[in-house]
Specification:
The chain has 7 helices and 25 strands. It is an alpha+beta fold and 485 residues long. Helix 4 links the parallel strand 5 and strand 6. The N and C termini lie far apart (56 Å).
Amino acid sequence: MKRLLIPIVLLLLSLSTLSAQDQRGVLRFRADSTFRIAQFTDLHIDPTSANTPRTYEILREVIRSEQPDLVLLTGDVITERPAVEGWRSLARFFEEERQPYGVLLGNHDAEVLSKDSIYDLLEGTPYCVSLRGPEGIEGKGNQEIRIESSTGGEIAALLYLLDSGQYYRDQFVSHYDHIHFDQIDWLRKTHAQTLDESGRVSIPSMIFFHIPIPEFEMLKDQGKGHISEGISSSTLNSGLFSTLLDLGGVMGVFCGHDHANDALSIRDGITLGYGRVSGLDAYGDLPRGGRLIILHEGEQRFDSWITTPEGGRGATFYYPSGFDSNEEESAHYLPALSLDSATHGVRYRYYTGTIKQTDQIPTATLVKEGALPYPSIEGADREDHFGYIFESLIRIPERGLYRFYTYSDDGSVLYIDGAKVVDNDGGHSARLREGVVALEAGLHRLRIDYFEDYMGQTLEVGLTGKGLLRQPIPESILFLEPSDR
C-alpha cells in the first residue's frame, strides 16, 4: 500500500506546525495521543462570488481556533466556473495556512471540471494528501489514509475516503448514485492487507464520503443535532454498511450533501453522521462551520462537535457511548457508595417453580445460593421453570452516563442502587432491552432478577459508557459486598 507523504517542503517547517507529522511527513498522533480532524463539507465555492472570501475566512477561523491535524473536504467544493482557478485558489489557501488537507468529491464538482482534471491540479501540491486512487474501480479519490502512532512506525488509525458518485444511470430507479460493488471490494481487500501488514485483528477506522447511504434514515428519529431536510441518499443499497460491520474497528461514517442536516447517532456500533455545511453559497440556514473529530490513540474512541466562528463549539458527542455533553451535564447522578471491597464476585440465589414475572421469583422455592464470578444461569439444573437473583457491587470507572442492557429469554430486570434501569420483564423469546443511568465514579449496587418460564433460556448483561465499548459486564469490575465475603 502506497504510504501518504506530504511533500518535502513540509519538512522545513517548524515542529510546532507539524505537530501531527513526523520527520518523514507522515500523519501521526500527537504526543498527547490525540489526532484532530476538521470536516468541512459543501463549500459550493463560486470563484466569481462575493461570498467566496468570507467562506475562506470561515475555514480560516475554524482552522486557527481548533488547530486540526488534518482537514477533510467531503464534497461539493468548487461547483462553479472558472473551476480551475477555484481549485488553485483552494490549494493556495491551505498552503498559506500550512494545513494538511484531503479532498473527496461530491455530485456537483465534476459538473464543472472532470474528476481527473481536479486530481491533476491537486496531487503532489503542498499540504494535499489526496490521491486519485486506484484505476479500474468506480470513481476517483478512493483512498486509504494511515495515521501512525505518536511514537511512529505502528499504524494507529485508518481513514477511508470513498467517491459516492453523482447520479445513477437510470433516473427511474434512483436519482443519486451509490457506492459501487468494486469500491466495496477494494475497501475489503485494502483493509485486509493493512491488517495483515500490521499484524493486528482490528484498527480504529473512519469512513468519509459525500452522499449519505440509506442507513442514514435512522437519524430522522435518533439523531443528535439538526435534521431539517430529507435524507437524500440513493434508493439503492449496495451493502456498504454490512461490509463496515464485517470489517470491524469502524467507529464512524461521515458525509455531507444535505446542507440542513448535521445530526449523528450510533447504529449497530457505528456512528452515522453529517458534517456542517461550510460555504456561504450553499443553500440552507445553518450557521457555517465544520465538524471536529478527535481520535484517541490506542482506543476505540472519538469525540466530535460542531464548531462555527459565530457560535463556538456545540455539544460534544462521545463514541462509543453515543451520549453528548449536554446530556451528561443535565443528568441526575447517583452517588457512589462509601464502601470498600477487594473481593471479586456476584452473590446469587437460585429458585425453582413456575414464574411469570420477576417479582414472583422470591415466592418460588429457594434451592441454593452462593457466589459466582459474573451473572450466569449455567448452573441451573433444569431447562424450564427457574429463576435467579444476582447481587453485586459494580465499580464505575468515571463519572458519566452509562447504558446497561439485558438480553434474555425469558424475563429480566436490572437495578442500580435500587432504581430500575432495564425492564425486560415478562415471558418472551430472546430480546434486548436497554436503559440509561447517570453514575458517579466508584461502587454502586447492582441487582439482576431473571426467570425462565418455558422453551429457551439465555441471559447476557452488559453496558457501555464514555470510552467503554458495549460489552458484557467484565468480571474485573464486579465485587462482593463486604458482608458477603
